[in-house]
Predict the structure.
Amino acid sequence: MKILIINGPNLNNLGSRDSSIYGSMTLSEINDYLLRFANDIGVELSFFQSNHEGDLVDFIQQNTLSSDGILINAGAITHYGLSLKDAIVDSQLPVVETHISNIHSREKFRRTSVLESVSVGQVAGFGWKSYVYALDLLLDYLNSGN
């Protein structure tokens, strides 16, 4: 089983961003943790981060046929990325959306996700562990035959 782990704008700066919102772990540290978790259960992960929506779309399109699901933290693109949403729909892969902070308790514009309606679920507000919980939920979804 292969899962795409996709991160959008500014997530490459984790570890140096506002730690009261985003914690102190870097994206590389989060990816390393996810990799160890996945290796323990025989799941392959493919990581990608970009600050550009089109690059995220290209990555999904290039990897759809060889993948089983998507875990995505689209960053700010979450709130307006209609081409990203279309790429997710076109992929026909199950998606779990994740966020380090609780987007529902932040500024009003952050409370809307264009990806929410095309995702099987959303995990937000648990810091870096949101990624672990989201991956676990996605794998459970895939293994349940849904």
User: Anything to note?
Assistant: The domain at 2-143 is CATH 3.40.50.9100 (Rossmann fold).
